[in-house]
Amino acid sequence: MARTAPRGTQSQVGEIFGEIYGEHYGKAGIPHMIDYPRSDAGRWLNRPPESYYPIVFADTIHVKIHRKRSVATEAFHAF
């Protein structure tokens, strides 16, 4: 069973949890296990914006350099 499936039945989710954690989880416990991350993600998505966000911009250009009868590609970085 693929672990990257977008959705699954409660039985499938229980099987995946069993593969990962080595224990069987019944259908009744699965909704409770899914509710916590869902509510946690909801709180994070609805959080107030921060007053300051540190941002680092980085860029790279690859340039062909001719040296001693050969051509090499080198990366030049800008921050």
The gross shape turns out to be elongated
**Average residue-wise pLDDT:** 81
Strand coverage percent: 15-25%
Distance between the termini: 43 Å
What's the β-strand tally? Answer: 2
Radius of gyration: 24 Å
Q: What level of helicity do the residues show? A: 25-40%
**In which order are the strands of the major sheet placed?**
1-2
Largest sheet: 2 strands, antiparallel
Question: Helix segment count?
Answer: 2
Summing up helix and strand content along with how strands pair, one would put the structural category as: alpha+beta
Question: How would you portray this structure in words?
Answer:
It contains 2 helices and 2 strands, in the order ααββ. It is of the alpha+beta class and 79 residues long. Strands 1-2 form a two-stranded antiparallel ribbon. Strand 1 and strand 2 form a beta hairpin. It is elongated, with a radius of gyration of 24 Å. Residues 1-5 have low confidence and may be disordered.
Descriptors:
two-stranded antiparallel ribbon; 35% helix; disordered N terminus; elongated; single chain; alpha+beta; 79 residues; 2 strands
Q: Helices, strands, pairings?
A:
Blueprint: H1 10-21, H2 30-45, E1 59-67, E2 70-78
Antiparallel strand pairs: 1-2
Short description:
The chain has 79 residues and is an alpha+beta fold. It contains 2 helices and 2 strands. Helices cover 35% and strands 23% of the residues.
